[in-house]
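Q: How would the structure tokens look for this protein?
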Amino acid sequence: MNQDNNKKSRLLVTREGVSYVLPFIVVTCCFALWGFANDITNPMVKAFSKIFRMSVTDGTLVQVAFYGGYFCMALPAALFIRRYSFKAGIVMGLALYAVGVLLFIPAKTMGDFAPFLLAYFILTCGLSFLETTANPFILLMGDRETATRRLNFAQSFNPIGSLAGMFVAMNFIQARLSPLDTAQRAVLDDAQFEALKQSDLGVLVQPYVMLSVVILLLLLVLLLVRIPKVRQASTGRHAPLWPAARRLWANKSYRNGVVAQFFYVGAQITCWTFIIQYGTRVFMAEGMSEQAAEVLSQQYNIVAMVTFCLMRFVNIYLMKYVKPGRLMALFAALALLLLCGVIFVGGRVGMCCLVGVSACMSLMFPTIYGIALGSVHTDTELGSAGLIMAILGGSLLPAVQAMIIDSDLDFMPAVNASFVVPVVCFLVVMAYGLRHARS
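A: Here is the predicted structure in token form.
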């Protein structure tokens, strides 16, 4: 019993006798903050498409800008952390996050789509700093053999932030936008359209302004908290980058992990973004208005996130008995079965299947991350950057799915057929899990 208790303590808060309780709490708050940003953003694809009278494909530029920031800033973030410290990386991440959020104010004044894309890009440059820093930092806050479980535990607070983001999106943005649907907006003259657009943008910007206050408060707390240094698995801050990159590329487990992470994030974002389009079609077919169908779809999305959140804690327990890779492969296979229901059954049954996919996804990001980075014994910061750059899948794959949704198909509704994209993604994830079923 004492041995089990000691192992539990090593799981979270100690390393070589040093307590990390307070730093762990502070870093976990960052996990919640980027979860909020992710899931207040997903419904914005539909919102911006309506506000600016754009196609779904054009609306996914929000995701391109959002996840493009992750890709572009991950390597600079790793170099910054390598040169300075984990704490400096988190401070820089929160500062960029706050700047990006505050840029929504001038973007609303300009009334164009492009300034919002710039704001999202800068915002996620900050999130890239946070994720590149926080994930390996959590892995280093205890024993190596419990690192994947520890990261799963920290990541369990990410969907709590996501739930808050969904709640705000549904109740303070979607429910307060003009009830005029896409067809009604299309017939407005220029003056009417401009007035409606400014009104809706004002509604959209308000939650982001409040978010900036929370970010700045956490930044202040972080500056006041002493965070002990951890021993970084690195070849040194001045070590050449090219040999480090070659070492990482030669590591098959790590290389395949980056590929699996690319496809997993793509699957996550497609399922959470296009549940709105999928549900809107289902509920409008039942006679609902477009706005009512969107709000109900977002409620299903919140149920999906609650399920995702609860399953994180269930999976932490299951990993005591089932190897992480094997468990991930099993859940990927279940996700594939549920997606068959989404594509071929449809209706409310399809919506319930789509909610079930979120339960399957709950362990995938931290498990892929933990397995891949766990195989890296040096160059930890650069390895972390590569796994964060793989978040680019959340930028590119939703655009592919949106093009399918915007197409005309004879054999089934286009929005149903579009979920073939996450099917491909989960096949890749399942293959990676099976390769590491014994690790």
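The first strand starts at residue 14 and ends at 15.

Residues 93 and 126 are 4 Å apart (CA to CA).

Upvote if useful.
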